[in-house]
């Protein structure tokens, strides 16, 4: 049994419905240490036969046996392994990877062995020394002569320490001096006990071999043994591995570095899409924050005020009254009845306190007053202090204590004077309330209260503590009846649901019991609208991403087309289909990540510039790019790039190695 056996190999191409038989039953045996020259005319099928032996072409009849094992019985993974471990290819037109330097081209094969990186570099340099190129290891293929390129290709073929070297017209593109150098190297390889199969149409080149096989018209014409095969040499077994994503990623980086301008442009293009998305999200949240900030600086959106819905008080008694005194008494009774109707009791408030998300409830009291300072009398509404009156609205002084009053700026101006309104602070104002006492008598509640503070309020209102209010009315035997309550809700997002539940409470008349005043639900709705608008704007900005995805697809397709031959070389060296697709996914990943980083940097730049431009106007940073938005932008960029790579990577992986190698 020979090391390599060809059994009745037949191959035909069908062109224009016509079958063109190239190989018509080839039977050959090869052994280690042989230097075979396959001699034949151009177009005789030599390359076709080499592709079959090298495991690149499996569309043929007959069989190739390696150590008795049929190549036909091997699956795709085993064929990849065969090319990776057993065969080393040398091509007529060198087929070096143009963006890798000489050493990296050799390392391409060494990367498929399990030796350490340092050892790989050492061996790569030793191989280059062997082919006389130690000084050119950092040069790129386009900086080498034809002979030098072919010597790099030989070093690369040797790097994985294969048993078979297939050299398809290795000197076809070389002058006689380089031909001799290359053939000498191949001869020395055979002398090391490897099987070297050279294809040539030159008798001179064929004469280097230990056996010449004449291929003519698709058949073996004759075989001529001109030298003894070399002895087999015992060698250390090499441990191999697949290329894997890391190696393909490195390779893609090397490719991108060589084509940096193209990739920079596409990364720049994609980054515009990402930055517009990030800025739109930032603008949306900035506007939302600005609006909330503006509103909440005036009011507390989670504190809502409720009062009872009161029905009409009967006026029959008033109508029946015959005397002025009786009429007055009837009116007073109506006033007391209305006050009773409007009263919010502890039982009422306890029920509301039990509603989910209600943090606290406070009873309050409001009434109309006449407030005066010296001769100035102003109608003002009184309310007891509560959490809807924000500390930040108190511009001068403090909240009221007992027998003190907090007044609005408008009222202060009316009482003391527009320009010197601040002087109202610490002055005593008189507060009068017309009321009805327990005995149904009209009384005037009157109290001098010290102004503790002035708010920014533009209403004529005054604020006292509940204790002060109660003491004031009780002093005149008037019952203190709280007529509003403040319901404090835990979160803005819960305001709406609490509002619904309060509105659902029915009174004894089966009708809605409470009026509800608060802007929390309005803010909540506004926030929803802003979010919606932001999403729409972000979606529009997302169109830019679609364009960038198309750009990436185009660039990757161009890349696949430009690198078709390289793909063929990689497959010949033993790269798997998956490795080829990884090459393009790695590029897409790099584009996605760099576009995201660039997009975020641009976004930040827009944020700084935009905020600087608008700050003088509204004193608030209107663009607020959050960490989540940046992370989102990053994810979208990477996902879109990877999706864009799907089709080109798939196409690249499915390319036929033989067709790829003959791609022009
Ligand atoms: N993919 C293909 N489709 C159709 N015909 C093909 C294909 N590939 C090769 N052929 C034909 O097969 C024949 C043998 O080609 P092959 O490349 O094996 O010849 P060769 O002996 O290596 O020639 P050369 O020395 O010029 O490289 C040629 O006539 C060629 O036209």
TrEMBL record:
It holds the Pfam family FtsX. InterPro entries: AAA+_ATPase, ABC3_permease_C, ABC_transporter-like_ATP-bd, ABC_transporter-like_CS, MacB-like_ATP-bd, MacB_PCD, P-loop_NTPase. Keywords: Amino-acid transport, ATP-binding, Cell inner membrane, Cell membrane, Membrane, Nucleotide-binding, Transmembrane, Transmembrane helix, Transport. CDD domains: ABC_MJ0796_LolCDE_FtsE. The chain crosses the membrane at residues 260-283, 536-560, 580-602, 622-646. It comes from the Bacteria. Residues 4-242 form the ABC transporter domain. One of its GO terms (molecular function) is transmembrane transporter activity. The lineage of its organism: Bacteria, Bacillati, Bacillota, Bacilli, Lactobacillales. This is ABC transporter, ATP-binding and permease protein. Its main location: membrane. It is found in: Cell inner membrane. One of its GO terms (cellular component) is plasma membrane. Belongs to the ABC transporter superfamily. Macrolide exporter (TC 3.A.1.122) family. GO terms for biological process: amino acid transport. Gene3D superfamilies: P-loop containing nucleotide triphosphate hydrolases. SMART domains: AAA.
């Amino acid at each position: 049994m020979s090391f390599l056996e060809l059994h009745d190999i037949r191959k035909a191409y069908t062109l224009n419905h016509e079958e063109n038989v190239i190989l018509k039953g080839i039977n050959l045996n090869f052994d280690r240490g042989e230097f075979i020259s396959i001699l034949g005319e151009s177009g005789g099928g030599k390359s076709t036969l080499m592709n079959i032996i090298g495991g690149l072409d499996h569309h043929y009849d007959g069989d190739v046996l390696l150590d008795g094992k049929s190549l036909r019985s091997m699956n795709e993974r085993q064929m990849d392994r065969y090319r990776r471990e057993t065969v080393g290819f040398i091509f007529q037109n060198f087929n070096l990877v143009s963006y890798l330097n000489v050493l990296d081209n050799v390392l391409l094969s060494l990367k498929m062995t399990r030796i350490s990186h340092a050892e790989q570099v050492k061996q790569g340099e030793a191989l280059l020394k062997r082919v006389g190129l130690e000084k050119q290891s950092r040069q790129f293929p386009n900086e080498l002569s034809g002979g030098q390129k072919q010597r790099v290709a030989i070093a690369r073929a040797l790097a994985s320490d294969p048993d078979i070297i297939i050299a398809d017209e290795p000197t076809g593109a070389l002058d006689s001096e380089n031909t001799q150098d290359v053939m000498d190297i191949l001869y020395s390889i055979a002398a090391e006990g490897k099987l070297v199969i050279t294809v040539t149409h030159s008798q001179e080149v064929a004469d280097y071999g230990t056996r010449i096989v004449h291929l003519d018209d698709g058949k073996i014409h004759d075989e001529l043994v001109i030298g003894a095969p070399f002895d087999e040499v015992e060698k250390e077994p090499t441990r191999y591995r697949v290329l894997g994503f890391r190696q393909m990623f490195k390779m893609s980086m090397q490719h991108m570095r060589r084509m940096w301008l193209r990739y920079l442009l596409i990364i720049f293009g994609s980054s515009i899409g990402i930055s517009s998305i990030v800025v739109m999200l930032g603008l949306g949240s900035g506007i939302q924050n600005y609006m909330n900030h503006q509103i909440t600086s005036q009011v507390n959106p989670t504190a809502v005020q409720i009062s009872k819905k009161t029905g009409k008080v009967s006026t029959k008694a008033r109508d029946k009254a015959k005397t002025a005194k009786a009429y007055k008494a009837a009116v007073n009774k109506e006033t007391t009845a209305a006050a009773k109707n409007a009263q919010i009791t502890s039982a009422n408030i306890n029920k509301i306190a039990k509603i989910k998300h209600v943090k606290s409830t406070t009873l309050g009291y409001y009434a109309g007053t006449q407030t005066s300072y010296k001769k100035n009398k102003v109608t003002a509404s009184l309310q007891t202090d509560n959490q809807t009156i924000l500390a930040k609205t108190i511009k001068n002084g403090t909240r009221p204590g007992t027998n003190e009053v907090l007044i609005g700026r408008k009222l202060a101006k009316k009482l003391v004077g527009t320009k010197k309104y601040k002087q109202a602070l610490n002055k005593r104002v008189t507060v009068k309330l017309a009321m009805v006492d327990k005995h149904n008598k009209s009384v005037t509640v009157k109290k001098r209260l010290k102004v503790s503070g002035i708010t920014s309020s533009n209403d004529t209102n005054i604020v006292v503590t509940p204790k002060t209010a109660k003491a004031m009315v009780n002093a005149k035997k008037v019952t203190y009846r709280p007529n509003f309550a403040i319901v404090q809700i835990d979160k803005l997002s819960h305001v709406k649901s609490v509002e619904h539940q309060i509105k659902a409470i029915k009174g004894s008349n089966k009708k809605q019991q409470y009026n509800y005043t608060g802007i929390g639900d309005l803010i909540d709705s506004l926030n929803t609208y802003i979010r919606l608008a932001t999403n729409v704007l972000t979606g529009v900005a997302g169109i830019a991403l679609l364009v960038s995805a198309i750009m990436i697809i185009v660039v990757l397709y161009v890349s696949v087309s430009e690198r078709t031959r390289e793909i063929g070389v990689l497959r010949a060296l033993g790269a798997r289909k998956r490795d080829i697709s990884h090459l393009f996914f790695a590029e897409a990943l790099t584009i996605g990540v760099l576009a995201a980083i660039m997009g975020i940097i641009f976004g930040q730049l827009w944020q700084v510039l935009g905020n600087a431009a608008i700050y003088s106007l509204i004193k608030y940073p209107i663009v607020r790019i959050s960490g989540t938005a940046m992370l989102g932008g990053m994810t979208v960029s990477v996902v879109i790039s990877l999706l864009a790579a799907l089709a080109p990577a798939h196409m690249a992986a499915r390319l036929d190695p033989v067709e790829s190698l003959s791609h022009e």
